Amino acid sequence: MTAFFPVPADLDPADRAAAAPAPGQRLPGHGRDCYGCGPDAPHGLHLELFAGDGVAVTARMRVRPRFEGGPGTIHGGVLASAFDEVMGHVPTMCGRFCVTGHLQVDFAAPVPLGVDLYLRATALGVQRRKVFTEAHAWIVEPGPDGIAVEPGASGIPVAAAHGLFVQIDPASHYGAVAAGRRSGAQKS
Q1: What is the tally of structural domains in the chain?
Q2: pTM for the whole thing?
Q3: The domain spanning residue 172 has which CATH number?
Q4: Structural domain boundaries enclosing 72
Q5: Backbone angles phi, psi at 80, to 5 degrees
Q6: Residue 27, C-beta contacts closer than 8 angstroms, at least 6 positions apart
Q7: Contact between 24 and 50 (Cβ < 8 Å)
Q8: Apex CA 16: angle with CA 28 and CA 56, to 5°?
Q9: Could you give the count of Cα atoms lying within 13 Å of 83 in the half-sphere of its Cβ?
């Protein structure tokens, strides 16, 4: 699974921020209603995100029936959203707040409904306000407690992705939208 993605050769290393959570620690989500990581998003992905080693993020996701695309399999856009979410948390490990600038996904195998999916995203490097990332997804067998674990040699690779995330000032970027939510305006 190799995607064509023009990664600059002169990237600076991505350094883990001193304030980044310890490896294995659960990461806070973007918000309770976030489609990717929010626990209150009724039709959301409900990804469980964890700090990885270095500048990495891991995630687990149960492939629910509501994610169906082709018969009995996940919709490709849902898997792309999961990649967007897990790679979008990588810049936070560097102490940066970013939004998606580019997302590319390569699908390698169908993902059946009902399986546990494991995703791992890492930083390839940074260039000024840009953070370049890559990620992989595997189907994993549940452990003894019924929760999926890292795939190791037993995981089935199903997809890979590359992303470009651009650092922003959240107050400037989300200012009008956030102000509307605080005043009780309807979500769209």
Answers
A1: 1
A2: 0.85
A3: 3.10.129.10
A4: 48-182
A5: -60, -40
A6: 21, 37, 49, 50, 51, 57, 89, 92
A7: yes
A8: 60
A9: 25
